[in-house]
Amino acid sequence: MVQGLPLNGKTAVIYGGAGNIGGAIAEAFVQAGAEVHLVGRTEATLKAKAGELGARYAVVDALDEGAVDRHAATFERLDISVNVTTDNDVQGTPMVEMSVEDYLSPVVSAVRSKFLTARAAARHMIRQKSGVILFFGGTGEASAHRRWQLGGLLAAFDAVESMRRQLAAELGPHGVRVVTLQTGGIPESIPAEHRAPIEADIVGETVLGRAATKADVGRTAVFVASDWGSAITGTQVNITCGSVLD
């Protein structure tokens, strides 16, 4: 441990920690002094990312109530919980042509996984009288064409934001903060073969003329999760480069 780092002595668990966004947050947390635990369903990718970062890992399905609770029970304390798991979204199909199962899939999986992981973390944090729960996604007044053929993804984001507000209200008196990192899209997280047109679309909506990077996400997550962000809860932190204006 290096003295003076913003997350020095903090224990963080990142669900979806081997993915693009989870990995970026994990890297930033490690650099900021946290003890980082990566969680996901695929051991090979978890093991590789954990080895790269000097983190720990566990194979856990964030949709499995028993598995989430058992894993959380292995911690003596838990200071930061981040859930950036993907939400089984089906995109590229008009809503009028979608099955109800495909539309609801991201809503159900997002609400279930975020609820289970937040609940498990909150039980530690209430006892500690401190902690931070982070989500990634958020909602805002995106332009009409940016909402095109996204299926149930935006409904899932809206549902999680409702959960975030309720959690913040219930957990605030215990010293626990709940925050969403609001994204307008991170081109680096998109497969290279599909990136160019989507990146152009994302950048075209911003006022800064650029898209947020994975490094931006990591640095913002460190700020919010650390004592530097101790007054922030119950809200979204906007990292859209101005594609969403408050």
Automatic annotation (TrEMBL):
Signal peptide feature range: none
Superkingdom field: Bacteria
Gene3D superfamilies reported in the protein's UniProt record: NAD(P)-binding Rossmann-like Domain
Keywords for this protein: Oxidoreductase
Coiled coil regions in record: none
SUPFAM superfamilies: NAD(P)-binding Rossmann-fold domains (SSF51735)
The UniProt record lists the keyword Oxidoreductase: yes
Family: Belongs to the short-chain dehydrogenases/reductases (SDR) family.
PANTHER family associated with the record: DIHYDROANTICAPSIN 7-DEHYDROGENASE
Name the record gives this protein: SDR family oxidoreductase
